[in-house]
């Protein structure tokens, strides 16, 4: 990572387009922010867009904006992402999720620096720096005609691959300790050191979700730790991917049950682990506090 960051620093203060690749959870979004903050545009906005969340029918409206009355539901003017990022940085996350039919429209504005707001005939010029990211096999997508080769070359003046956590074993313990301090302060808990057994398990773990997975795992451990140190038991590494575990017969250790019953059991387990503390239980389940309250009411669960 020191080499990656060193190389990024050498081009961050230019306006070249940068393409970040790597597995999910490796920190591509954080590096995009690092590029922006080390650029000459750091006093201007950085606008992030998850391209996979934009439907094909709304692509032009989201990216270029629209005028009132441009289409049936256009009841007000809308500012597009290119205009919001003017003079700053536009981060296009999961760029390979753009439908092929819309890729040519993005290519045009990247090549010419010009676009039109939907419903307007006036051509606008844009002055932005583009950073994009993807976890896909772009070469295969180009070969399968799912991603335009000319758009790829326009986006990746310089490409950086962000290594997975399993390629960075020497980073695992320092990162874990960083997250312990971060979440201990966030949740007003004591900063607990890792035991030797916990360190060994963390180093040997597969980390399929990379740093994002580590962040969630450590936050859970900080919330649930009952001793002065975080031990292997607090990490609950075996709980991360329960469907991958099996018993001696090769069958899943999870008993067969309805989805509703599984949801009830998980809620009860989270409430038990957190002594019925709703915010912490919601955090363990990946829910908002209000979502958990709705489920407790729905299933008529007793909090006493």
Describe this structure in words.
The chain has 304 residues and is an alpha/beta fold. It has 3 domains: 2-163, 3-Layer(aba) Sandwich (Rossmann fold), CATH 3.40.50.300; 165-237, Helicase, Ruva Protein, domain 3, CATH 1.10.8.60; 254-304, Arc Repressor Mutant, subunit A (Orthogonal Bundle), CATH 1.10.10. It has helices at residues 2-12, 28-37, 59-64, 81-84, 100-112, 138-143, 149-155, 169-186, 196-204, 210-224, 232-235, 259-273, 278-285, 289-298; strands at residues 18-21, 46-50, 65-66, 78-79, 89-93, 114-116, 123-125, 129-134, 158-161. Strands 2-5-8-1-9 form a 5-stranded parallel β-sheet. A hairpin with a 6-residue loop joins strand 6 and strand 7 (123-125). Helix 8 crosses helix 10, helix 12 crosses helix 13 and helix 13 (278-285) packs across helix 14. The chain is globular, with a radius of gyration of 23 Å. The N and C termini lie far apart (49 Å). The model is unreliable at 240-253 (pLDDT under 50).
Poorly predicted segments? 240-253
What Rg do the Cα atoms give? 23 Å
The secondary-structure class comes to: alpha/beta
In DSSP terms (H or I, runs of 4 or more residues), the helix count works out at: 14
Shape: globular
N to C succession of SSEs: HEHEHEEHEHEEEHHEHHHHHHH
**What is the typical, i.e. mean, pLDDT?**
87
End-to-end C-alpha gap? 49 Å
Largest sheet: 5 strands, parallel
Strand order of the largest sheet: 2-5-8-1-9
CATH class category of the largest domain: Alpha Beta
Predict the CATH topology of the largest domain: Rossmann fold
CATH superfamily of the largest domain: P-loop containing nucleotide triphosphate hydrolases
